[in-house]
Amino acid sequence: MTGDALHFHYDVDGNNFTSAGEASVQVKRTLRQMGYHPDLIRRISVAMYEGEINMVIHAKGGDADVYVTPDCITVILKDVGPGIKDINLAMQEGYSTAPDNIRSLGFGAGMGLPNMKRYSDELKIDSVVGVGTTIEMKFKSA
Amino acid sequence: MIVYKHSVSLDPAKCKGCTTCLRRCPTQAIRIRDGKACINPQLCIDCGECIRHCPYKAKRASFDEWDSIDHSKYLIALPAPSIFGQFANLDDTDYLLQGLKNLGFDDVFEVAKAAEIVTDYTRTYMKRKGMAHAPFISTACPVVVRLISLRFPTLRNKMVPISPPIEVAGKLAKERALKEHPELKPDEIKTVFISPCPAKVSWVKNTPADKECYVDYVVSMSDIYFRVLSKMDRAKVPEITSESGMIGMSWSSSGGEASALMNDHYLAADGIENIIRVLDDIEMGHFPDLKFVEMNACPGGCVGGVMAVENPYIARVRIRSLQRYMPVAQNHVVLTDDEPIPREFMTVEPGEYSSAEILDADRMRSFRMMSEIERIRNLLPGMDCGSCGAPTCRAHAEDVVKGESKLDDCVIRMREHLRELEHDDGK
Fold first, then answer.
1. Contact state of B374 with A6 under an 8 Å Cβ cutoff
2. What ipTM is given for this predicted complex?
3. Domains of chain B
4. Cα B373–B376–B379 angle (5° rounding)?
């Protein structure tokens, strides 16, 4: 990552389901202060929120790193969870491996990765089964 | 630039510079400077949390005083529905309405009556706009409207553009007075809203210049409470009869407005911190099936307003028991399919969005400021003690970068400096 990017780090706590989404709320505020367009901020916060939830549901949490430059925001979500067996399948809307207790809370609709793709300008998934998943999303500021 | 006029202010003589309001302010609009609390008008949303929590009663709300009102005018009381929960042993709302007349009002127009009309229009608006546009967000609480305008730009077009009950009540009350008293000129008729909260004062003060405001005075509920108490005569049959029903009355506490819409996919949140959380969640697409969102800044809804006299939970139960023998609603608006919602019942479009939190209009400059904020934040202890005058260490870092305070206003850093000095002396 470029040396002059602003860097924000967040620990996503996998033991506390109710805290999921807090990092993206903080990112939202920071970006508002820097004057980014509301629609861009919304895209970032939705995509990052989905990523946070995924890390909590599947990987017992992880690290969220946000790098901000004036024209691009990069969100990197890294976990040491079970990994994604079939990325193509996981990218399909409605496909989910979330357990029933999570679904009963209204999560696990199978929209996590599809939404992350829809709302980001670039999405890179690096996942090894049994090792973990790193997701990198880029958002361009006009 | 439009300057927002506030209704919450400080009595510097009473302020001790303690950090209570600092921590309670949901938008971090307060700083302690030179030992006194200062409110940043750009960020204040007039929620009244600082009034509620100030241990020295140093925060004031600028209501109209009963004695300062011109009593030679034709005065119409607009009681908020929450007032009916303030009185013990009130088994019929008519006694209170009569009490208001006995106090000196020429007429009484219940805001609950207007709320029933707003409910009908909201239902029509939602149906016509279509559920693809959901969730629809209530605009009855002015604190919520200002909060969304300042901090949730992508939700601004979700706000229901129907005038709030206070405005509808003022408008209809004036029209009725003109009809019943043709001898009166419009400026001889004045409406007086009896309010549980300071936010309604701000709402009246900030009516756009090109829009007529139908509410002339806003008095506090606690002021009227003590005056009307002695004017309520239980031995005499009231001449006045309530014109509202369960639906209008239900607006007094959280969930009432939403349940009146007869749509089960709603959410009703109350308390300012809870509301902020809900708005963040909605903005992130957390509740896909949600159709309607009712939010009240005060805990419990309007019955929890800082100018209410009674405990909000007691008030809510009292209103529930009053509702038991009321008709469902006494006001109905029926529009034919091609009949639009009258313009005078709709609010103006929200203006151009501008962030109140933005560090600098220049992206590169705000970028440099943000990186400086992060650097300074790492130098601070992270205790969020408030002794520097800012609510958090992060806020202090921002203030330092903005040039509003100095890094060493941090007492923890100063203590460390002192220790180092002592240590050096001891050598």
1. yes
2. 0.77
3. 1-62 (3.30.70.20), 66-129+161-248+303-345 (3.40.50), 362-427 (1.10.15.40)
4. 155
